[in-house]
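Two proteins follow. First one:
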Amino acid sequence: MDAREVAKHASATSCWVVIHGNVYDVTDYLGEHPGGQALLLKCAGADATPEYTKVHATSTVQETLPKSKHLGPLDGSTRQHLRSVKKAKPKEPKQPPGSLQLALCVRLADFEPIARAAISRQAYTYISSAADTLQSHHDNLAQWSKITFIPRVLRDVSASAMDTSTSILGQPCALPFFIAATGLASLTHPDGERALATAAALRGIHFSPSTYSSIPHHEVAQAHRQTLQKISFTNSSLFFQLYVHNGRDKTLQLIRDAREAGYGGLLVTVDTPCVGNRDEDRRLKIEDEVALGAAQPVNSDKVVPGSNSGQLARSLTWADLAWIREAWGHDRPLALKGIQSAEDARLAADAGVTAVYLSNHGGRQLHSAPSCLATLLRIRQQCPEILDLCEVVVDGGCLRGGDVLKAICLGAKAVGLGRPLLYALGAYGMEGVLKAIDILKHELETTMALLGVTRLGQLNSSYVNVAKLAHEIDGMDSYSSKL
């Protein structure tokens, strides 16, 4: 197809794009695109490949659009007649990461302001946004300080005896935290999930790529495997985070692909029948759509119920675990991610999962959702046997190595970290991620020494005071005395 013809279709009423040398009519898909109309409109009549590959696997467009919208290959000899990709507004000035030396980043929170200046507004908004007023996100951050330590003294905590190793989903690792699933990491840095997987392998920790990885899952696995081979180290695994789709065939294919690529665990996300109400994401989409002349920018009072579900399965129930487990393999580790109540933790344990993953999705889903520590306290009060039946892992708002230890004192096996490592990636690439991991390791070892322990297995609830947090949880005022 001649590029001059493609260039004519550059509006909301007729929108054609070129992806990997092929022409597609995406007009009817504008209102359905999860990223908003603006991302497509700015590429109308142009080669969208550079923008597309930031967030999508090669096959996504072929699987998403009906065959009737595949208009054929572009005539390469006419490429110069394509339109240029539109810019909704001038680029904001970026502060180069070098303006603050990486060596001066001494805590995880140091990476966020550097990343904010270094990455695009779209990327920062995507990472930082949360549901409604951000209450759940802010509660996540605040929860950790509401638990205090009770250290023991006059114990031998020689550095040579310090051991931070553990296992998660039965698989050994050097540290009791892992890189949690975060979608579209290449928005933050071109190396995206490939850099995160490499950093995880180099430091001997686990990494959970998202279903919506911006790097194909097999390439992420390849980068991880090649790094382990180079350093002759095996204490690092990949866990595949699964969003269950409307179409069972699509979900089954994702599971098969994860198995074939060598992923060592499956984290089935159960808190996302639809996408949460993220105001800043919506605001940015609307601003871009207006700037690009969208025919019908998203209007909050005209949103159709369920229209924010995308391809997610709203009908997912406990019964579906049977076919998911069958496809994944009964002998392979499986966790349920997004458990937010003791009742559901009990059901998950009864279902025989390897791990219960307590999470409110970084505060990005339900406004006023409970923090993972609040849920963990309820489990300890209402059904403590769960901690013996399966592993418990948590995430949400953790920024310090000492806070990881607080979770372990209360029975968690490990803590997942998402946003902080994305900020480190956006600020300094893989070197930033490695530095962030090293910061946490240093904090872990220092805090363990100050607590009077040398191994994670020595920690228990006697090392923490939960009275302040328990007092804020309805019906648990007297809980601390029952630990």
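Second one, unrelated to the first:
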Amino acid sequence: MSGRQLELMFVAWAAARNLMRQRVYQPDLPFPVYPPPPVWPDEVRAMMILWIARER
């Protein structure tokens, strides 16, 4: 993957991690608005799902 794709992936991971952390520890707060994620290939989407599951 290119450097730009990796950068976007890490930004998306950080946003997803923050949303999950807020959902678990502060469920009464409204969710921050994030732009919709770019369309990821299936391999990258699977990597993100596994990474978030590992963090939980």
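SUMMARY FIELD: The first helix runs from residue 3 to 25. The helical segments are 3-25, 42-55.
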